[in-house]
Amino acid sequence: MNDWAEFRHFLYLVTILEKGGFRPAAESLHTSQPNLTVQARQFQQYASVNLYRKAKDGRIYPTETGLAFIPLARSVLEARDEVIAAIIAIERGEIDAIRLGSSPLADHELFRLLCSMHKELMPGCSVRRSHGDTTQLAEALLAGELDAALVTLPLKHTDLCVRDLRQDRLVVCMRRDSPLAEKAAVEVSDLQDNLTILYHPNRHPEAHARLMELLHGAGLQIEEYSSASHPTEMQALVKDGYGVALIREGMPLDEVLTTRRILGVDWTVDMAVAYHRERHPKTIPILVRKLRKIAQPTSAFPRKPPQSSTGNSESGIRSASQTPVQLQLLR
Q: Where are the bilayer-spanning segments (predicted)?
């Protein structure tokens, strides 16, 4: 194991790299320059890495490994602070109940896992669950009526911390006896005049607008459609023959339904945990960090690099060989 590595090593080295030298780093950390030199040398020797190169003028320039080390070290230090804050809050009895919410478009298994993780962390703490659309959950978080919520994106608010969890592929849901079901995968053009079931635009206006933008960018014109306010309603409409719908790959299906991937695009649904930046139980960041490690896509689909702030990610239609585009809501 790496028992030789201590938190001070990460703090010292990230400060050296960010300040660009030992002297400014020593001044910032209120320690001696020789101490920093010894600690930095020992860490690199034990880990067998080179984090920086020193120029003739004495300036420190991060290597490729050093550039990667900076955000990784910051993550280690953030985890340390989150753990300390959590145990202090628990010791003071500040967390006697936790209120968790989930969007109907999010993965229910992830929500159950989130709830059970907190119960495992604090067995004596009651977990109160609620459900609502992303917009409703965000309002509840801002009003202090919820502590954290599993949502589907986009969600943008400066007072909310939105931590990405997972990215799942969007697929076409259809009846098994549909002519499209005879294909191993469908073309984008197959959706024209067949994609006639959408999640109700009023339930998440930003997501609906983004969906229409993506469909238009792929050359599709969706003029008339049936709308549903819940994923089960979408499946019911497909089952009753009202058309096909876009859903998250891997979600449970009615036995008369099936799904097909869409050739040429990789549209996805992004799930995240949101909580108030200032007013949140100190156990929430711990749970989110753990959940991000174990939350895996429902299929062999790469998860995008995590973001830790507002989730204001840009999206666009790209080919299947490129980075997946984030549709960010439909399920």
A: none
Q: What would the CATH number be for the domain defined by 7-89?
A: 1.10.10.10
Percentage with pLDDT > 70 across the chain: 89
CATH 3.40.190.10 assigned to 95-166+269-312: yes
Q: Please list the residue range(s) of the chain that carry CATH number 1.10.10.10.
A: 7-89
**For domain 167-268, is the CATH number 3.40.190.290?**
yes
Largest CA-CA distance found in the chain, in angstroms, rounded: 75
Classify 242 as helix, strand or coil: coil
Is-contact 245 180, C-beta < 8 A? no
**Do residues 328 and 246 lie in contact, with contact meaning Cβ atoms separated by under 8 Å?**
no
Say which amino acid occupies 310.
Answer: T
Give per-residue pLDDT as tens, 215-250: 999 999 998 999 999 999 999 999 999 999 999 998
Phi, psi of 61 (to 5 degrees): -120, 125
pLDDT at 250: 87
Structure tokens, 139: 């309002």
The span from the CA of 3 to the CA of 111, in Å, is: 34
Residue found by looking up tokens 């993506």 in the block: 214
> What whole-number percentage of the chain has pLDDT above 90?
82
DSSP tag of 244: B
Cα gap 66→53, rounded to integer Å: 9
Rounded to whole angstroms, the Cα distance separating 99 from 130 reads 8
Contact 294, 287 (CB under 8 A): no
| pLDDT computed for residue 1 by the predictor | 77
Where in the chain are all domains bearing CATH 3.40.190.290? 167-268
Q: Is 215 helix (H, G, I), strand (E, B) or coil?
A: helix
List where CATH 3.40.190.10 sits in the chain: 95-166+269-312
